[in-house]
Amino acid sequence: MSRRATLLAAVGSALALSPLRSTPAHAATPLSPGLPRRPYVTSPREAGAVYDAHTATRRYAEPLNAAVDCAKGTGGAQLMATFVTRSQWGARAPRDVSTSITPGQGGVVVHHVDAVKVAEPSHADCAAQVRGIQAFHMDSNGWSDIAYSHLACVHGYLFQGRGENVRTAAQGTTQGNDDWYAVCALTGGTTGDYDVITAGIVDAVRYGINRLRVSGGAAAAITGHRDHHSTDCPGALYGRVISGELNPSGGPLPYPGVSFRQPPATVHASVATWQYRMNSAHGFSLTVDGQYGPGSDAACRSLQSRRGLSVDGVVGPATWGATFA
Ligand SMILES: [Zn+2]
Ligand SMILES: [Zn+2]
Fold it and tell me: Which residues are 51's β-sheet partners?
């Protein structure tokens, strides 16, 4: 069965089995007496990345009217994910909405939830997980809303977060929140023990990035949270950022639209992505700090020389392409 047919069949069977709920359960709903109150699982290195383990109740009804939503990604790749609107997942209203974001100067940052596994085996539990994250961000962190622009689950659904044209609170830096959207994968873990990255979540992340570009004016750059802030986030997904697999049209990672040069040193999160790749794929030992200083310039000239490019110490489209090819 095709993926679309599978999804439609799943929606159809859910319709046949479950009555439509007019008022989805909210995370704020008190727990039944006798249910254990388990603590939030948080990672000290990942401000804003939280997972409320107790919210995975069985009471949530599947968002029955979620649309199977197809789009052409940049470059024409067909993307298909099921988009779950805020009302469908039972979001609380934001306390405040800031449109002070300039994503044409940044792009999209990929996150995960935590350094422990969090992916729900059953999609019926994903909406409650998203409500738990929103409740933690609003009630414990005091933020105006769930931090992320969108959230993707391993079952191929994209949950609407703050959405397009709204400033995020996810990146841990003012510059990151000023210029970058945030897509959070509902996965976690550490190296060697990470949630399975399904084709569905890759498609959903790509769909989210495509939405943020088409409807939200995001620049082409895709970075991992670790390119902005001292964190392991997005864990095992970072390799997929670097490979370009999370790009709506697939790899390699697209040129961010900003040339790196010095002096003065270009400061941009995509410089960190580039420095990481120069170390991991080309044998350099650069400090990954997002600042294009003399060491980065020298490494750039070395790579340009090796690849027969003009040696000018500037990372433009050709040198970026040689770095990520
Ligand atoms: Zn993160
Ligand atoms: Zn799911």
Answer: 41
Domain ranges of the chain: 3-243, 269-324
- Ligand found nearest the CA of 125: 2
Ligand at minimal distance from the CA of 63 is 2
**How far, in Å, is the centroid of ligand 2 from the Cα of 228?**
27
State the amino acid at position 20 in one-letter form.
Answer: L
Centroid of ligand 2 to alpha carbon of 269 (angstroms): 30
By three-state DSSP, how is residue 192 classified?
A: coil
Q: Which CATH class is domain 3-243?
A: alpha beta
Least confident of 11-25, 94-108, 189-203: 11-25
Class of domain 269-324: mainly alpha
| pLDDT tens digits along 179-215 | 999 999 999 999 899 999 999 999 999 999 999 999 9
Ligand 1 mean position, distance from CA 170 (Å): 7
Q: What are the DSSP calls for 87-154, one per residue?
A: HHHTPPPPS-------GGGSEEEEEEEESS----SSGGGHHHHHHHHHHIIIIIS--SS-S-SEEE-T
Chain Cα centroid distance, residue 275: 21
Give the confidence band of 75 by pLDDT, cuts at 50, 70, 90.
low
pTM for this predicted structure: 0.80
Nearest-angstrom CA–CA distance, 156 and 123? 9
Judged against a pLDDT cut of 80, whether residue 22 lies above it is answered with no
Assess contact for 91 and 154: CB atoms under 8 A: no
Quickly tell me which residue has 């008022």 as its tokens.
23
Q: What's the 261 CA to ligand 2 centre distance in angstroms?
A: 42
When the pLDDT of each residue in the chain is averaged and rounded to a whole number, the result is 83
